Structure formats: C-alpha cells, structure tokens
C-alpha cells in the first residue's frame, strides 16, 4: 500500500534537492554503516571468544593429545597464550586479527588466514552456483504458482517447498549420490575435481571453475562443472523452497492491492499485472530473501560439504569446533560474519535503490 | 493455460542441463599408476615425524621416512635393519652403536650421514612436541641430548642414555615414528625462528622412505610421490589419500572403483560390502584396546575394589564384540594386546549379573547406585556405552551416559573430574612397556598415567613395572609382564574389554597391501595394481 501511495504521490521538490541531500546522506550512511559494521564484528568476536572459552574443550590438550608429557602440555599452553588473563588474550587476538593475522590453526597446523583463503572460495563457488539455480527456479516456480493459484503448478510448487524444507539435506545428498553417481553414472563422485585433474591443475584463485578455465584444459573445466552440479542442485533445492514460497505469497498478497485492481480494471492481463506491476514492487523483498538465502549458504552448508567431500568453510568451521581449534573458530566466524554483514548492507542498499527508482 | 507446460519445460531443462553436464564427465577408474585411498584426514596436524601423532600422520611416516631400525611388518616383535645395517650394545648396557647402511639417500639426493641421525633425534627431543615423551624414556632431555648422541666416524653413530633401561628397550623406542631420520641439510635450510624446520616439515617431507610428499592440502588430500632416490623403489608412482569425511560417500567411492582403498567404515557398511564382487575386506588385528576407567577417588563406592570387581562381571563382552561391533573388535581382557610379547590371551570374565550382585552385596555396596559415565561422542563408543548401561542396570548400577568431545574427556580424565569413562589405548611403540607404563605405574600421582587418572596409587606394582623394563633376559621379561597383567586384570579400576580389529576395504585389483599390528604400520611401497 505504501509503495502504491508513493508511486501515486511523488514529491515534486525531490529532484531539485537531490544532489546535496544525497551527498550528505551517502557519507552519513557510510559512516553509520561503518560504525555498525565495526561494532557488529567486535560483538561477534567477543561472543565467539567467550563461547570458545566457556566450552569444556581444552585447546592445549586437543593440540598435544592425551599421551603427551606434562612439559609438552605446558609448552602448548604457553604457545597458545592460555597462561594470560582472558582480557589480555582477547585484546591480543583483536590486535592480530586487525592486521589479518588470525593465528595458527590447531587442527591443520597452518595459518588460519591461509586456511580460510583456501576453503572460502570453495564455499563461495558452491553457494553462488546454488543461489543462481535456486533463484531462477524458485522465482519461476513462485510466479507460476501464484498465477495459477490452486492449480497443478501451485500444488507442485507447494509440495517442492514443503519437501525442500522438511527433508534432511544430508539424506537427500546421499540419495542423489546413490542415484546419479552410483546407479546411473551420470555424475562424478564426491570432491571438487577428479583425481586425474586435481593435481595437474594449478590452484590460482581457489575457484575450481576459474582455475580449470584458466588452465585451458576443457576436460578439467567440464569435470569441475560436473562435480559442482549435484551439490549445487541439492543446495539450490533447499534455497528454492524458501524463495518460491515467498515469491508466491508476496504476489498473492499484492493481487488484492488497489493498484493491481486498477490495472486489472484497465484490462491488463495476468502476465502484465505480475511482470509489469507486481514484480517491480516486491523486488526489494525478493532480493532480501535471496540475499539471506545466499548468506546462509555462505555460512556453511556443512552437511552438504561433508557428504560431497567439498572442502569449504562450513566443514572447516565444524572440524575446528570439534577439535577445540580456537584460532580457526574465531577467524572463520569473523570472516563469515563480515560477509553476512556486508551482504546485508549491500542488500539494503540495493533494496533502497529499487525503492528510490520506484519513487522517481 | 499455455504457460504451464512452458514452466515445466524450463525447470526440466535446467535439471537436464545440469545432469547432462555431469554426464559429460563420465567417471573413470583410478589411474593404473596411482593408489587412491578414501579416508578421513581431518585429524592430520603435522607431517613432521617429531610432532605428528595422529592416525593419518603416523600411518604416513613408514612410507616417507626410515629409521635406524624398524619393526618387522609381519611380526612387530622382531626388529630388523633399516638405515642401520647392524648395531652393537655397549658393555655398560646403556649404549648402542649403529653402523649405517651404505648408499642410502634422501629424496633430495643427499646421502644419509651420522649427522642426519644426530640432528633428527636431538631436534625431536628439543622440539618437545607430543610424542617427545617416547625418547624421554631414555632420560634424554633438551639439555643432555647433545651429549647422548655422537658421531664415531662417517658410518657409525653412538647413542647413550641415562635411564635405567636396557638396549632391547632402547631399540623398541627407536622403532617409533619419532625416531625417523630427516635430511639435515634440507630441513635446516627451511628452519625459521629456531624451529628446526618444524614449520616446513608440517606439510613437506625430507626422508629416505619409498615416497615423498608431493602436495598436502589440509582437509583435502595428501599426495605421495615415489621417491626416485629410494633404494627400495615403490611399485606405484603415486598414492593419494583423499579426505572423504562421510563414511557412506567413502563406501560409494570404493564400490564404484573411484577409490582403491576405503578406511574407517562402520560395521554395517562392512557387512554390506563383504560379498560384493571386486571388493575384499581385509581384517587386520590392531593393537588398540578399549577399556573402562573408574575414578577410585570420585566417591566411596567407586573407590571400593568390590565395585571394580563387580564391573568386570557386568560387561556383555561377547555381545559387544560379536553382535554390536561385528568383527571390528574381539574380546580381550589384559592391558597388552595380542601380538605383543607376554600378552595374556585368557578371558576369565564374562557377563554374570548374579555374581556381580553378590560381590556388591558382600562388600556392603547398596544398590541402586548412580554413576556418571562420560563417553566420546562418537561411534562405536556410544553403542558400547548403551550396552554397558543395560548390563550394569541389571545389578542396580545406573550409568548416566554423558557424551563429550575427545579433548573434554581427556581433560576430565587428567584432572580426575569424572566418575567412570570409556577409553581406548594405542601403544606408542612396539614394547610391552608402552602399555605397562600407562596402566601399571603410579607411585604417588606425580606422573601422567592412566593409573593416576584412576586415582590408583600402586608403589609396589610400579616397582615391578620398572624392574620389568630393566630386565635383559627376554623370557624373564615376558614372565614379569604376564604377572603384571594378571595383577592389573584382577585388582585394578580398569575393565579391559576389547582389542580392535582394523577392517580395510580394498579393491581386488590392489595387491600386496600390508598393514601391521601397530597404528603406524601401514605400507604402500609394495602395492601393485
């Protein structure tokens, strides 16, 4: 309703005042966003730090194992700085993190920053493929379902939506492997690349598709794409459940709005109403839903990554949690948290732009 | 109406496209010159033999490095030459002189010299990482180790020690992965901040073994490449340990022929694969022991030896081994695993609820008793714990199972903040003292042993254990360990239940894969396809 009113009552002075107002607004918004970003990250670091400290896991013991001598154990405690008071440990961590040094992982023995640089591209690749497939199908399904409310497509869309939400994702992943890999031999097995390509393609960007493309080996690129297909489709299926449901619900709720009724009264067909009138109006909402789905995929599709032996950040973080790997938990949480905040900010900005576009 | 089939077509087209792309990459069998192993390598922390102490890393050391001597692959009790062609014990009984094999080379092409032996052993002691306690058994410390190892000439090196142990025991210790010989020149060139090259060796190798590390990506894969300089060249060019964390996916890979070997499968999966064509299930006895640890200091009841005795009659040994673990373990009731010198093989205890009740009643222990039972949050521990919960309940002992992560269970064990727990033990080197030192030494709670974690103070048994490790006569030594095991079996707050059986799924194309009793005894050098 608000959108409709805004569209019908534009501010006549808006365009005249825009330049100066926009400059101030942009700078102010940026500063506001920056401070909120910093506070969010600080809060995230503090909460994660507190949780790792409250957990019963002893990182030093996890590092040296149960057979090690007391002197080795004490040396590990010193190495991890566990002998320092908690506030000192936290401050030291923040200091290092600010310079991009997240310390050394206990579970891999490598710098956390390089672990993240290695695992995050794998997740970004998977999540991006999944969100593209999920959005395309989810939006199409949602639109089709809304346009044919109560029909067969609607029933299928609702079934898929319910199924996508309620079925355990790891189980579905295993079934897909069993069917498409083991039974039909259509898809390759778990992993990002076949063994024959995995060690002949030099990792440059960390994105298997990009690296194999850059290597100039068409077979390797096809192999990377084939390995990506099943886990991406699985995650897409999970994401599209939410996207199609919300698209359908949003369109249906708009159908009763005054501007839609007016358009219908003027003789516009269902296709025109949905694509010309409704979709631009709910674009902000849909964008937010897609962005949130993308952010949650980036947070780590842990079970999918485990089933498909996909070396992403979700698995990295989970393994770190099980092994009491505090530097890895803190580092990965901060990076994923930052992405979440950034994505939210970008979505807000985009939604705002869409809204302003509508005002103009 | 005319849009409905269009939408369906679109969705169908997307799926078809994705699957068609998948189909275009038809899966292939493993390359003929490479062995693909599907397992979890998430535990790997460091491939530096002075630090690595996890299953994945210790399983790689025999393939990357050589030691002066090594345990025989088929009979671990026998010690055979490796980098040392021969050795001689000193008259004082506290030294050994090794003559190095001629012509041995590291993967860098550098020859193996006495300096490399000295560097390797001293750096392991000075680094003081997790497995350092093995060399500390000789009395070696960061301060005295430089004097303990000396070069006699270009082919001889002499080791001396201060601990009250004999050469036979010292030789056993030198078969442990931490005694691996690394290439001093290569490693020193990579050293940073006095780390003896530890940072570099975490992900690289500098050994004279059959393979070298071609690449290692944590949580992804370890790629071993044939060492061209090795005197005993491997049959295959490459061994790839692929990290496949999900066991079901591992099973699929080996079933489909995309992996040659799969490790760590559960009893159900092994059962399903047993009769599958093209696949063999290799069953290898392992030195791992599963036991119950009771904290005798937790309360009066748990400190009563009658409770420990009753517990021994409340375990459904056969049910757990045969029905629950189905071939992945066998009943074993002593602290030395079968295959170690002097291991007791008799099983005097079986599930006997009435007897347990009588033992408890005679000791005045009133039931019901509630006991907190901390257990690893993993299989098969949870299943075993549930079986124990059911059988203990029959005698009025209510086990409150509290699952936890490994380090939490270890930490509680160390600090004595638990009542009862389920643990496992894998020997650190091929000598009875490895286990005896854990279960039969606790003079005054001053050293970290399982006996200390149980609050079981045993000065007399400690003396006997230390006498056993000193004994030079092999037969007498075996008799001493048999006696020790009987005492621990009968009167300790430990209930030894099972000895592990490692089940490895192997494609029938793979020949000559060898795996020994101890955790590090995995060999890929003779494997053919």
UniProtKB/TrEMBL annotation, chain A:
Report which superkingdom the organism of origin falls in: Bacteria
Q: What are the residue boundaries of the ABC transmembrane type-1 domain, all occurrences included?
A: 120-347
Under the heading Pfam families, the entry gives:
BPD_transp_1, BPD_transp_1_N
Q: What SUPFAM superfamilies does UniProt report for this protein, alphabetically?
A: MetI-like (SSF161098)
List the InterPro entries hit by this protein, alphabetically. BPD_transp_1_N, MetI-like, MetI-like_sf
Give me the segments passing through the membrane: 30-51, 126-147, 159-182, 224-243, 274-295, 328-351
Kindly give the PROSITE patterns that the UniProt entry links to this protein.
ABC_TM1
UniProtKB keywords: Cell membrane, Membrane, Transmembrane, Transmembrane helix, Transport
Membrane topology per the record? Multi-pass membrane protein
Q: Where in the cell is it found?
A: Cell membrane
Q: Which family does it belong to?
A: Belongs to the binding-protein-dependent transport system permease family.
> How is this protein named in the record?
Peptide/nickel transport system permease protein
TrEMBL record, chain B:
Per the record, the domain of life is Bacteria
The UniProt entry's sequence similarity note says: Belongs to the bacterial solute-binding protein 5 family.
Concerning CDD domains, the annotation shows: PBP2_NikA_DppA_OppA_like_7
| Protein name per its UniProtKB record | Peptide/nickel transport system substrate-binding protein
Q: Which UniProt keywords are given for this protein, alphabetically ordered?
A: Signal, Transport
List residues of the Solute-binding protein family domain: 78-444
**Extent of the signal sequence:** 1-28
- Gene3D superfamilies, from UniProt? Dipeptide-binding Protein, Domain 1 (3.90.76.10), Dipeptide-binding Protein, Domain 3 (3.10.105.10), Periplasmic binding protein-like II (3.40.190.10)
């Amino acid at each position: 309703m608000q959108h409709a009113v805004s569209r019908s009552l534009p501010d006549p002075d808006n365009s005249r005042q825009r330049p100066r107002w926009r400059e101030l607004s942009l700078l102010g918004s940026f500063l506001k966003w920056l401070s909120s970003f910093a506070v969010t990250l600080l809060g995230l670091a503090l909460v994660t730090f507190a949780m790792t400290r409250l957990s019963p896991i002893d990182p030093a013991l996890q590092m040296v194992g149960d057979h090690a001598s007391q002197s080795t154990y004490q040396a590990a405690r010193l190495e991890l700085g566990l002998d320092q008071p908690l506030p000192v440990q936290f401050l030291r961590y923040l200091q290092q993190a600010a310079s991009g040094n997240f310390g050394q992982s206990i579970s891999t023995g490598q710098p956390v920053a390089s672990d993240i640089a290695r695992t995050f591209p794998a997740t970004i690749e998977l999540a991006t493929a999944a969100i593209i497939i999920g959005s395309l199908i989810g939006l199409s399904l949602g639109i089709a379902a809304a346009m044919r409310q109560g029909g067969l497509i609607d029933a299928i869309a609702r079934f898929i939506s319910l199924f996508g939400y309620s079925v355990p994702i790891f189980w579905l992943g295993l079934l897909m492997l069993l069917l498409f890999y083991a039974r039909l031999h259509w898809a390759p097995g778990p992993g990002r690349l076949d063994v024959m390509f995995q060690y002949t393609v030099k990792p440059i960007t960390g994105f298997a598709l990009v690296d194999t493309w850059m290597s100039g080996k068409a077979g390797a690129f096809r192999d990377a794409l084939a390995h990506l297909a099943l886990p991406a489709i699985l995650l897409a299926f999970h994401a599209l459940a939410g996207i199609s449901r919300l698209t359908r619900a949003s369109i249906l709720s708009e159908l009763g709005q005054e501007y839609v009724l007016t358009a219908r009264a003027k003789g516009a067909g269902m296709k025109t109403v949905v694509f010309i009138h409704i979709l631009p109006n709910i674009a902000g909402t849909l964008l937010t839903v897609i962005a949130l789905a993308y952010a949650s995929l980036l947070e780590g599709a842990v079970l999918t990554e485990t089933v498909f032996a996909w070396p992403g950040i979700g698995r990295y973080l989970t393994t770190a949690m099980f092994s009491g790997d505090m530097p890895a938990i803190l580092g990965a949480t901060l990076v994923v948290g930052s992405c979440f905040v950034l994505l939210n900010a970008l979505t807000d900005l985009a939604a705002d732009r869409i809204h302003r576009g509508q005002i103009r | 109406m005319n849009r409905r089939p269009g939408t369906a077509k679109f969705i169908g087209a997307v799926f078809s496209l994705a699957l068609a792309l998948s189909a275009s990459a038809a899966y292939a069998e493993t390359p003929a010159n490479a062995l693909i192993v599907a397992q979890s390598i998430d535990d790997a922390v460091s491939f530096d033999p002075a630090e690595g102490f996890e299953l994945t890393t210790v399983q790689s050391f025999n393939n990357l490095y050589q030691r002066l001597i090594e345990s025989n692959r088929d009979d671990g009790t026998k010690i055979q030459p490796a980098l040392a062609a021969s050795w001689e014990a000193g008259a004082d009984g506290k030294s050994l002189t090794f003559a190095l094999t001629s012509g041995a080379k590291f993967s860098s092409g550098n020859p193996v010299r006495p300096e490399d032996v000295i560097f390797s052993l001293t750096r392991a002691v000075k680094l003081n990482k997790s497995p350092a306690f093995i060399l500390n058994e000789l009395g070696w410390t960061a301060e005295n180790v430089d004097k303990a190892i000396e070069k006699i000439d270009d082919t001889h090196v002499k080791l001396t020690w201060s601990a009250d142990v004999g050469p036979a025991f010292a030789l056993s210790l030198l078969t442990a992965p931490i005694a691996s010989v690394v290439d001093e020149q290569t490693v020193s060139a990579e050293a940073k901040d006095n780390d003896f090259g530890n940072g570099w060796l975490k992900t690289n190798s500098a050994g004279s073994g059959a393979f070298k590390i071609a690449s290692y990506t944590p949580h992804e894969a370890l790629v071993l490449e044939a060492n061209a300089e090795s005197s005993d060249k491997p049959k295959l060019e490459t061994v790839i340990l692929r990290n496949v964390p999900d066991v079901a996916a591992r099973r699929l890979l080996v079933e489909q022929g995309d992996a040659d070997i799969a490790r760590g499968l559960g009893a159900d999966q092994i059962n399903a694969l047993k009769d599958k064509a093209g696949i063999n299930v290799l069953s290898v006895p392992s030195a791992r022991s599963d036991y119950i640890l009771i904290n005798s200091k937790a309360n009066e009841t748990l400190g009563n030896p009658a409770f420990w005795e009753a517990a021994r009659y409340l375990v459904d040994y056969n049910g757990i081994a045969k029905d629950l673990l189905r071939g992945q373990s066998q009943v074993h009731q002593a602290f030395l695993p079968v295959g170690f010198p002097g291991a007791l093989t008799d099983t005097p205890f079986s599930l006997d609820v009435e007897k347990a009740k009588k033992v408890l009643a005679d000791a005045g222990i009133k039931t019901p008793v509630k006991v907190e039972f901390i257990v690893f949050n993993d299989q098969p521990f949870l299943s075993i714990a549930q079986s124990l919960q059911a059988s203990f309940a029959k005698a009025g002992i209510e086990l409150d199972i509290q699952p936890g992560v490994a380090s939490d269970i270890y930490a509680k064990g160390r600090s004595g903040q638990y009542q009862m727990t389920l643990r496992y033990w894998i020997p650190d080197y091929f000598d009875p003292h490895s286990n005896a030192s854990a279960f039969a030494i606790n003079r005054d709670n001053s050293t970290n042993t399982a006996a200390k974690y149980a609050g079981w103070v045993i000065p007399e048994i400690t003396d006997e254990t230390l006498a056993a490790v000193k004994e030079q006569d092999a037969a007498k030594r075996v008799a001493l360990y048999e006696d020790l095991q009987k005492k621990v079996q009968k009167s300790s707050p430990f209930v030894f239940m099972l000895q592990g059986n490692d089940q490895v799924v192997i494609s029938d194309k793979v020949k000559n894969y060898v795996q020994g009793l101890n955790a590090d005894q995995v060999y890929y050098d003779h494997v053919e396809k």
